[in-house]
Design brief:
With about 800 residues, this protein is an alpha+beta fold. The protein has 20 helices and 43 strands. The chain is globular and about 80 Å long. The chain binds beta-D-glucopyranose.
Length: about 800
């Protein structure tokens, strides 16, 4: 069952009812100012850092769900309603929400009044703009009142939700004309404030929550709105809000339009005040004047759309499969940009308080957006590498505002160092810019010990190479990619963190998965060594990789007979083996070892993937392990803490499904690669939205596995490495347009009935127009013709002197 439909022409998902199975949200903002907005106008806003600089408050885990947002109320006689249905939940005569690329549009119709809202964050300013147009579609004159409402957050979202003994006394506001200023803590150490304004004279306002809502009321039932008159309250402590009242008369057929702007403003310390305790509003007024007419707003909206046109033209596919076209050309790349901006910090499931930017997460996210914004990818790599320790290990997370490593979680995750190689290699393969390797980058943010980025990569590889266990496999530490496989933790008390409790660097517990990564990224590192003319080092690295390859295929180490072992626990026992009672087979080493090419020539690769199909496959995707753990295993950690079928305990963890699909392309099975791709693909799961429940235009982190009560139900949408890996899978492996250090390679692996297709790709400033004649073949390039000339192999030689290149690929 569907709750809306795709509008590909406008790059929108059109939600036809507010009563979606979960809030279906969108992200606004692309640089520093961000909002989350749901299909009922719920959500919140922050500047740069969802924890430290949050403008508006959100209530997680509350009922009714999705309880706070940026709302407009319309009072028409006794009827009070919202264009997005919530929070009053007054039944609407018509409702529509269009989530687009960096904007959302709402339409609500009630008793002949139509309210349309367009909300977006402009490309160049730290504000959110909402254009509200009200139209009288009836044949009588209408006298209505419009009310806006946002609830301020007291900046640090963590403090805001805990420190009430202080916070209920600190709130301060100012009002000037139609602009409501939130200036809590500005009197002391903050040089920033927020403003919410409308480009029309207002009839009244409120800034104190209790006055607006009324004691013991809530946003669905605000007393001042119900009374039809805001109270001009001035907040003092407690909970500051911003609400405007506009009294509007509309003749039949008449429309009126209002622009609301919510902005973040910073002042220089020496220029904080206009007069004693009166904030300097000049920068706010300058900003508001940039959006005070419809024409200015329309121009800013056009600028936003033009920016996205440019970005989304970098990789486009035209195939006979609409769903693939839609995901590749629009939604998958869009989600990659959002994960670039947010990492795992702020969603409806990530509170924005707990986690900053993940080291491994951000490195992997980079794989999905590096082609879109290579300059920012470059900065991101430097930021990430700056949190690495001198010995090659890394902080697991860092805070986006300070860019400092997060010492609460610390270090010791065995896979982290290798992801830095993955991200850097992807950047150089995309851009050809090897100068990044010479960039001086600090360790643990200490510039006095800075080394070139190449040295960081060397230490990444070296750390894993020199930290091995009894089977000569890499040590797992606190966990590897699977944050919940905590083999050194041995926690028995509730409340202990599975990731930080216990010794992080146990000398026994090993990860076969990291072994697969070592092969994949060891080879990429060796290529970078060659690029730098370090051929001796490259040879040494390749020798280590070759040795690891053998260890992975050794039945006394990595190979279990029908599939790859997952790990060895701290007692030296196998995890993910036929010898285990539960958790006999895990997905990660099968996907990653095979995509790294391990066992490709000798048959283990095919066997491992056949075992995945046999033991882990479901109609909703490939599960992370089987059989699920039915009891808690102290020696395995968090993985066994979940009930069977959920999360890392036999859920379908969407992130690693593309690894299996990529692995299938590596052994040439296009039918199966595509089958795996389809199972978690939003454009395909849209049809079962009532089961899947999360947004049908983007990926979620997890779908409940076969053991779960709600098999097929998605959870934790938006911020997941699934976005990047799926885009890598479909664009580079299935459609097969892969950036190498020497140029673009074209080597598709598609289902036999996929048909011919065309990819347009802007790469290092050259536009490639690639036509693939498929000939019913799953993999294999018979002919590569570049601008009319035949070329050997699959790599299009890079020629910077050309603006456009025509490529014909004949499969066979
Ligand atoms: C984390 C990832 C981790 C994954 C699997 C996600 O929540 O952000 O870093 O790889 O879970 O445990």
């Amino acid at each position: 069952m569907k709750f809306g439909h795709f509008d590909d022409e406008h790059r929108e998902y059109v939600i036809e009812t507010p009563k979606t199975p979960l809030p279906w949200i969108n992200y606004l903002g692309s640089k520093e100012f961000f909002s989350l907005i749901s299909n009922t106008c719920g959500g919140y806003t922050f500047y740069k850092d969802a924890k430290l600089l949050r403008l508006t408050r959100y209530r997680y885990n509350d009922v009714p769900m999705d309880i706070n947002g940026k709302y407009f109320y319309i009072k028409d006689g006794d009827c009070v309603w919202n264009p997005g249905w919530k929070p009053t939940q007054t039944e609407l005569d018509e409702y529509e929400c269009r989530h687009g690329i960096g904007y959302s549009k709402f339409k609500g119709v009630k008793k002949g009044v139509r309210a349309e809202v367009l909300t977006f964050v402009p490309v160049n300013d730290n504000c959110e703009v909402s254009k509200l147009v009200v139209t009288n579609d009836s044949s009588e004159e209408k006298n209505i009142s419009i009310f806006s409402y946002v609830e301020w957050c007291l900046w640090n979202a963590d403090d805001d939700s805990r420190n009430f003994q202080r916070n209920f006394s600190t709130g301060e506001v100012e009002v000037k004309g139609s602009a409501i200023y939130h200036k809590t803590e500005y009197r002391e150490r903050r040089n920033h404030y927020a403003v919410y304004s409308v480009n029309a004279p207002i009839a009244a306002f409120d800034t104190a929550r209790d006055s607006f809502l009324g004691l013991y009321h809530y946003a669905g039932d605000p007393e001042a709105v119900m009374n039809g008159k805001l109270t001009n309250s001035m907040a003092s402590g407690w909970s500051p809000i911003a609400a405007h009242q506009l009294d509007v008369t509309l003749k039949p057929g008449e429309s009126k339009s209002y622009v609301f702007v919510l902005a973040y403003i910073e002042n220089p310390v020496e220029d904080k005040w206009e007069s004693h305790n009166v904030i300097n509003k000049k920068p706010a007024e300058a900003l508001l004047s940039k959006y005070d007419t419809d024409a200015k707003v329309d121009a800013a909206f056009a600028e936003l759309n033009a920016q996205w046109d440019k970005l989304l033209n970098i990789y486009t596919v035209d195939s006979s499969n609409d769903k693939v076209n839609r995901m590749v050309n629009i939604w998958n790349q869009y989600q990659c940009m959002v994960t670039f901006n947010m990492s795992r910090s702020a969603s409806y499931y990530e509170s924005g308080i707990g986690r900053g930017m993940g080291f491994r997460d951000s490195c992997q996210d980079l794989l999905g957006f590096v082609h879109l914004i290579p300059d920012r990818a470059r900065e991101r790599i430097i930021d990430i590498a700056s949190t690495q320790f001198e010995d090659g290990r890394a902080y697991h997370q860092y805070q986006p505002l300070t860019k400092k490593g997060n010492s609460d979680i610390g270090s010791g995750f065995g896979d982290d160092p290798l992801w830095l190689i993955a991200g850097t290699s992807a950047y150089i393969r995309e851009t050809g810019d090897a100068t990044i390797l010479d960039e001086m980058v600090p360790f643990d943010n200490d510039m006095s010990v800075a080394q070139p980025l190449m040295e960081h990569l060397r230490r990444s590889f070296g750390y894993v190479d020199t930290h091995r266990g009894p089977h000569n496999l890499p040590l797992i530490g606190r966990a590897d990619w699977n944050d919940c496989l905590n083999l050194n933790c041995h926690s028995t008390q509730p409340g202990e963190s599975f990731q930080t409790f216990g010794p992080s660097e146990g000398p026994v517990a090993e990860s076969v998965f990291i072994g697969g990564m070592f092969v994949k990224y060891g080879n990429e590192y060796a290529d970078l060594c060659d690029l730098k003319g370090l051929n001796e080092e490259a040879a040494k690295v390749r020798a280590s990789v070759e040795e690891m390859n053998k260890i992975l295929l050794d039945s006394n180490a990595g190979w279990d007979g029908e599939w790859f072992v997952r790990a060895y626990d701290s007692y030296g026992n196998k995890v993910g083996s036929k010898d285990c009672e539960e958790g006999k087979i895990y997905i990660e080493p099968q996907g990653f070892c095979v995509l790294a090419g391990v066992g490709k020539e000798t048959g283990e690769a095919e066997k491992a993937l056949d075992s995945v199909k046999k033991h882990l496959d479901t109609k909703y995707g490939v599960m992370i392990l089987q059989p699920a753990y039915t009891v808690y295993h102290e020696e395995l950690g968090e993985v066994s803490s979940y009930p069977p079928g959920y999360k890392e305990n036999a859920g379908i963890f969407c992130h690693n499904n593309p690894w299996v699909s990529i692995a299938e392309t590596v052994i040439g099975r296009g039918d199966r690669a595509f089958e795996v791709y389809k199972k978690t693909c939003p454009a395909y799961t849209e049809e079962i939205s009532e089961i899947h429940r999360t947004e049908p235009y983007i990926y979620c982190q997890m779908v409940a596995g076969a053991d779960a009560k709600f098999h097929g139900e998605g959870k934790n949408s938006w911020l997941t490495g699934t976005a990047a890996w799926t885009f890598v899978n479909i664009s580079q492996y299935i459609l097969g347009v892969y950036p190498t250090l020497k140029g673009l390679s074209v080597d598709p692996c598609v289902p036999a009935d996929f048909g011919d297709f065309n990819v347009k790709r802007v790469y290092r400033g050259v536009e490639y127009d690639i036509t693939v004649k498929q000939n019913g073949v799953q993999k294999g390039v018979k002919e590569l013709i570049v601008d009319g000339a035949k070329v050997e192999g699959t790599v299009i030689p890079y020629d910077a002197s050309k603006k456009t290149v025509k490529v014909e690929v004949v499969m066979g």
